[in-house]
Structure formats: structure tokens, C-alpha cells
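The instructor's notes for this session suggest beginning with a concrete chain rather than abstract definitions. Hand out the sequence below and ask the class to guess, before any prediction is shown, which regions might be ordered.
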Amino acid sequence: MTRDLEHYRLQPYSRTFEIRTEGSERYLLYRIKEIPMIAGDGVTKDEALRNLREAFDDYIAWALDEGLGIPDADRVVSFEPAPAAPAHEVRADGSIDTDAPRTVGPATRRLTAVAA
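After discussion, reveal the predicted structure:
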């Protein structure tokens, strides 16, 4: 597997954020938990996250060019089938049968983050 910028973009890195003030100005500061020197700030969440993505791309490209080690994400994301939800079928007499079997299609999945 090639470890290029796209590889690191797909890693499920954790983000942290702080609300900071400078004088009367308020702004958000986002960081990558596993690589805390990568940060992006902005007045709005969208601006801060856009700046974080730009800083991430710049840092990863630089680290790859320099041959530096880049940490992988601390968490692993896996997909598991979702448990079947209780079924509710209406009987002929109008009552509800909550014990009826229910089918879950293959598209029904839940995202589970598992600590590495």
C-alpha cells in the first residue's frame, strides 16, 4: 500500500477543538489529536475546518517529501451488520404483532469506532 497524501486523508484521525478569545475576538481552533502540530483556526466552524484541511495537506506533503514518519490514526473504523430492529406487523384483527421476524438488508450497517 502506497502511503501518499490520499492514504493519510482517508485515515480516521480524531479532532479536538478549543474556543479561544483574543481581546474581543472569538475564534475556534481545531487540531489533529494524533498530530497536534497541525491546527486550523477560524471565526466559524466551516472556516476553521477548511483551514485545518489545508494545514493537514501542507504538513503531510512536506513530511512525505522529507521522509519523516507520520502517525496513523489512533482509532480503527470497522463496519458491522446492524442488529435487527423490533418488527411491528399489523394482524388481521388490527392488533400489532411485535414478535414478527424482520429482515435487515445488506445496506443496513452501523459504523463502529474501535480503539486500536
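Then share the key points. The mean pLDDT is 78. The chain has two domains: 5-66, 75-115.
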